Automatic annotation (TrEMBL):
Source organism: Circinella minor
The protein, known as: Geranylgeranyl transferase type-2 subunit beta
Assigned GO CC terms: Rab-protein geranylgeranyltransferase complex
Catalysed reactions, as listed in the record: geranylgeranyl diphosphate + L-cysteinyl-[protein] = S-geranylgeranyl-L-cysteinyl-[protein] + diphosphate
Any matching Pfam family: Prenyltrans
Domain Prenyltransferase alpha-alpha toroid: 8-302
Amino acid sequence: MTDSLLIPLHVKYIQSLDKRTDELEYWLTEHLRLNGLYWGLTALDLMNNIEALPRDQIINYVKSLQHENGGFGGHTGHDPHMLYTLSAIQILVTLDAVDVIDKDKVVAYVVSMQNEDGSFRGDQWGEVDSRFVYIGLMALKLLKRMDAIHVDKAVQWVLQCQNYDGGFGNTPGAESHSGQVCCCVGALALTDSLHLIDQDMLGWWLCERQLKNGGLNGRPEKLEDVCYSWWVSSALAIIGRLHWIDKEKLSQFILSAQDMEDGGISDRPGNMVDVYHTCFGVAGLSLIGYPGLKKVDPVYCMPEHVIARIGLKK
Ligand code: FPP
Ligand code: ZN
């Protein structure tokens, strides 16, 4: 157990990820390669170590994943999807290199994913989920092209995802879930629509996600998980109620999930680490003011200085 963030170890862990080709995990997560780069790069920048990954190589790799229809695949030869398209834009914006890709094509791809009712599909196969509304809105906001879609319809659809308990689900009528809450609240923040929801009710649902051990869960009766340090806290921060949870206990919980020998953060103490939980653990710590980290923006899950550089900081 340690009460400090082991930054040099986590930097080494993230650097090692593309060299672990002898591990099964490396091959099982091939479809997440681009997401992994976004998670790793974001964690590194927040830990003041963005230069630990090779900038030019990343830019060329991301560029190589754009398809003719404008969307991005998760790795070489993989089909385009909204999840990877957002990661591509976030990486390029973070590296100040968004001009290397065809932005108009990305915009056309995102526009092509919006349904008549305002919702968004994840890809050509048609899955609808509040994650994709958030992703579509964020991608266009980062590209300064929100005008290209039906923003009002998107907002109306997101509002339908709010439940009587104050939380949000993945589609209208679906059970409240912290990940979806983060996406819906993010979508409403991106469209200046937060005044349309009951923020006190939502705040109650969110702060009740904190368990005795300080960790946060995704739904009532579920176990704590480090990634929810992000999904829950970012939504609380966006609605100005981050002080409704015990930050010190949350900080202790995240720190207790570190691998103190090889670096990286896991979902909960004692489990295998991965770059996803490393990113959201570090981002969670940044959000609650852990010393020595760069500030993260709760709406974009990107370093605040990047959002300020492109003129989107509120
Ligand atoms: C739960 O993950 C989290 C969600 C459902 C939200 C995911 C949001 C996105 C992919 C949008 C992009 C996000 C950012 C930060 C830019 P899970 O189902 O893996 O959780 P589990 O561990 O409970 O299964
Ligand atoms: Zn998790």
